[in-house]
Amino acid sequence: MSLHIGAKAGDIANTVLIAGDPLRAKHVATTLMEKSFCYNEVRGMMGYTGYYKGKRVSIQGTGMGIPSTSIYVNELILEYGVKNIIRVGTCGAIQKDISLGQVILAMSASTDSSTNKIHFHGMDYAPMADFELLSDAHKAARDLLLAPLVGGVFSTDTFYSQDVSRWNLWAEHGLLGIEMESSILYTLAARHHAKALSILTVSDNIITKQYASASERESKYMDMMKVALEIATG
Ligand code: HPA
What we know:
With 234 residues, the chain is α/β, with parallel strands linked by helices. It has one domain: Rossmann fold, CATH 3.40.50. The chain has helices spanning 22-31, 66-80, 115-119, 131-143, 168-172, 182-191, 214-233; strands at 15-19, 34-40, 47-52, 55-61, 84-93, 103-111, 149-155, 177-179, 195-205, 210-211. A 5-stranded mixed beta barrel has the order 5-8-7-6-9. The protein is globular and about 45 Å long. Hypoxanthine binds next to strand 5, strand 8 and strand 9.
């Protein structure tokens, strides 16, 4: 057991998918995995281990945002020896021509969070995905005919803001979308010699103000999940 995860040693696979919403973790475990069991219910942050195409894999809820995600990523790597972490989440697109449901592979994650500035003594670390996971996910997504986009995303600490133009600068520099977790996932994975990748589905377009319906989100989310499970077990 660790402070926030009630699993026994050996309960968690070497490769773990992480999802902000713990009920998504439960849904994936019970619909796409075989022989899954729940190893964690602490704080309602469900975690499951099961099999996909005969290979062992886990999925863990993390909650939203950098502080909550960092707790689970730290404990998975340092207390349970996890080697690969694949985030499966959503993002808001900041390029007007990106459609809802688009799958994005986050090559890098810029951030407004102070966590890295503090750690790196005021200098800017560039959090980036593991190349092998990124390359495998690109191939798996293309095989599933998902036409993935690959590029930079931005991990923010503030979902709501009154500044309507705040993403312009980042869009001008080619970033694809906004979410709230990848920068710390990539940083912690690098620090502790694990591999990480974020696979994101566009749930809204911040520029065009389009939002996916619940059913659209559901089906696209499951497409992305198959990419993650393919590379987790490939
Ligand atoms: N902002 C931050 N995180 C998000 C968004 C957003 O618009 N959409 C999905 N995750």
